[in-house]
């Protein structure tokens, strides 16, 4: 596949972010229980490009330790792939609790809650 064709396909998949965000939200709730899920970044702000990724913020009811972030991300990602997320989808999971959520709220221009 040519680079141009690859980038067009990547952007096409990114523009379907609502579908993939819903899969991630369902996977997060199955893996973690009570969790709020938001899309932030380029998708939420309407500025996706072929070089973007989908930024998804998972807000847990507790403040996760930094060393837990990788394990939590891996659990959610693996479950999302089982549910239909392409294994190579450009996804960036952000993990937060009640305190660290405030920093995302302060910095994000827009947060879209995924129900």
From TrEMBL:
GO MF annotations, alphabetized: nucleotidyltransferase activity
A Pfam match: NTP_transf_2
InterPro entries: NT_sf (IPR043519), Polymerase_NTP_transf_dom (IPR002934)
Domain Polymerase nucleotidyl transferase span(s) in chain numbering: 25-89
Gene3D superfamilies according to UniProt: Beta Polymerase, domain 2 (3.30.460.10)
Coiled-coil annotated residue ranges, if any: none
Name of the featured protein: DNA polymerase beta domain protein region
Species annotation: Pyrolobus fumarii (strain DSM 11204 / 1A)
């Amino acid at each position: 596949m040519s680079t141009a064709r690859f980038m067009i396909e990547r952007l096409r998949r990114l523009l379907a972010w609502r579908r993939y965000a819903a899969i991630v939200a369902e996977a997060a709730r199955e893996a973690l229980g009570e969790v709020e899920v938001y899309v932030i970044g380029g998708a939420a702000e309407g500025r996706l490009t072929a070089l973007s990724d989908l930024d998804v913020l998972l807000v847990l009811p507790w403040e996760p330790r930094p060393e837990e972030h990788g394990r939590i991300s891996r659990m959610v990602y693996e479950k999302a792939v089982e549910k239909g997320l392409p294994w190579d989808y450009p996804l960036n999971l952000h993990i937060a609790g009640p305190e660290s959520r405030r920093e995302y709220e302060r910095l994000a221009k827009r947060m879209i809650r995924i129900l």
